Amino acid sequence: ITAAADAWARGSAALPKPWQPQKPVLPVEGMRNVLITSALPYVNNVPHLGNIIGCVLSADTFARYCRLRNWNTLYVCGTDEYGTATETKAVEEGLTPQEICNKYNAIHADIYRWFDISFDYFGRTTTPYQTTIAQDIFQRLLARGFLLQDTVEQLRCEDCQRFLADRFVEGTCPFCSYEEARGDQCDKCGKLINAVELKNPQCKLCRGVPVVKPTQHLFLDLPKLEERLEPWLEQSWATGDWTANARYITRSWIRDGLKPRCITRDLKWGTPVPLDGFRDKVFYVWFDAPIGYLSITANYTDQWERWWKNPQQ
């Protein structure tokens, strides 16, 4: 408090000169380098105050604080654009998924600009860099034996000649009998649903009755990572600043044992899977979207790896 009062008495002339980073902002040897991302907003809607307060505004506040501290700071964000929600919105509005993304990315960017959110770069996930980086990570996982194949029972609409993603199916909830449950969850009772469990399922596109058929998918072999993950978590919990909620959720996953997780989907709109036998599929958006943080940075600077692959800083 004494130091703060003294600084206040000396006035702004005594403050350090504001740091002016180079453009593009890159890590600087000997400085504190801070990379900030906020959760990528999904592209198929107009942002509301809850979206802004929930992640964008808090990250913006922290970015401004870091710059006031003269820390070398990069703040990036962008729209998350792949997945079934985009396809569904495209069908609703009679546009292609790319047209939907172009429309709503511009709306998002304008709103954040109006709120004066201090992004150094606001990008999107439907870019060549996204494809290149996601496919490279996939190939590395494949080469190291962290992927496996398995057969999944899935609903297929013979009239539309396609396997149906969760959001393209509606039916009666097997738990509470709500008649408009989606293929991934019931909005009435809140329970998660496997689409093949729905009673009286209907294709949302043509209202036909889909049939259950087997399809091959690729899975991330998470159980293989448990032995490496547990000691890393113990070290990270001891040295990092995890919230109680983050610790609790992570511990529950480890306690129950990690399970293989599907990373592919029978869709057209997404990052293509570069493997024979799976080239008609795309990456599941949960696998693809987090890579957007890397690809958005790569669209900002071709030296993106200095931020993302720089453990010394």
Automatic annotation (TrEMBL):
It catalyses: tRNA(Met) + L-methionine + ATP = L-methionyl-tRNA(Met) + AMP + diphosphate. Keywords: Aminoacyl-tRNA synthetase, ATP-binding, Ligase, Nucleotide-binding, Protein biosynthesis. GO terms for cellular component: aminoacyl-tRNA synthetase multienzyme complex; cytosol. Gene3D superfamilies: HUPs (3.40.50.620), Methionyl-tRNA synthetase, Zn-domain (2.20.28.20). GO terms for biological process: methionyl-tRNA aminoacylation. The keyword Protein biosynthesis applies. Pfam families: tRNA-synt_1g (PF09334). GO terms for molecular function: ATP binding; methionine-tRNA ligase activity. Belongs to the class-I aminoacyl-tRNA synthetase family. This is Methionine--tRNA ligase, cytoplasmic. It comes from Mesembrinibis cayennensis. The gene is Mars_0.
